């Protein structure tokens, strides 16, 4: 397995199973196992909520007990929002998925347990896990919807599995303006403002021009931005000349 298996233990609502499948597929995960779903299986409500991720439900493996769903796995995480009185490593979703990638790369089979909506996993389920995943949520409202918890964990898997730029600029077919283009724009504005008497008094003129040049250099402009600013100034001059 090149990815972790997500095991939904005794899920109560078909809608949440479908939502979990959709969340998994959003982030490229498609290995789902179900342990004793309350309303039986298959479930049409799950299919309706899964939207385009119905294949995950078709291929989901069904088990009667947690132990049966984990029998081929070598490392297991259990998700829980509260202390259980069990001595185990407790990690964030981010760290858990880092560990999962390391272990899968080494040939291990990793599973993540998600508990039922009402009370979460039982201690008997968690006792079978090697580590606990704890989401740093508001302690006064720690309960997460099943599909939400699946989505958080799946997101952390995807974030580490692909090279995602933390920030990028969508250019939409545009090109950045060159320094010479920005210099010509600055000259254009400086010349017109000089004619309009903007740089006054004369003792402050050089400082004002320096501030204006610095203003242009701070702006990340495309060629179309530069052309538009040239056009604005030209139109304003034409309008003034018509008025004269």
Brief digest:
The protein is of the alpha/beta class and 244 residues long. The chain is 48% helix and 11% strand. It has a seven-stranded parallel β-sheet.
Features:
244 residues, alpha/beta, 7-stranded parallel β-sheet, 10 helices, 7 strands, 11% strand, elongated
Low-pLDDT regions: none
Query: Assembly state here?
Result: single chain
CA radius of gyration is 30 Å
Distance between termini?
78 Å
Strand order of the largest sheet: 3-2-1-6-4-7-5
User: How many DSSP helices?
Assistant: 10
Q: Give me the strand/helix succession.
A: EHEHHEHEEHEHEHHHH
Largest sheet: 7 strands, parallel
Give the structural class: alpha/beta
**Overall mean pLDDT:** 92
Your description of this structure?
This protein is α/β, with parallel strands linked by helices and 244 residues long. It has helices spanning 14-26, 44-50, 54-59, 66-69, 93-105, 123-126, 146-161, 179-195, 202-218, 223-243; strands at residues 5-9, 32-35, 61-63, 75-79, 90-91, 110-114, 131-133. It has a seven-stranded parallel β-sheet with strand order 3-2-1-6-4-7-5. Helix 5 (93-105) packs across helix 7 and helix 8 runs parallel beside helix 10 (223-243).
What is the fold's blueprint, element by element?
Elements: E1 5-9, H1 14-26, E2 32-35, H2 44-50, H3 54-59, E3 61-63, H4 66-69, E4 75-79, E5 90-91, H5 93-105, E6 110-114, H6 123-126, E7 131-133, H7 146-161, H8 179-195, H9 202-218, H10 223-243
Parallel strand pairs: 1-2, 1-6, 2-3, 4-6, 4-7, 5-7
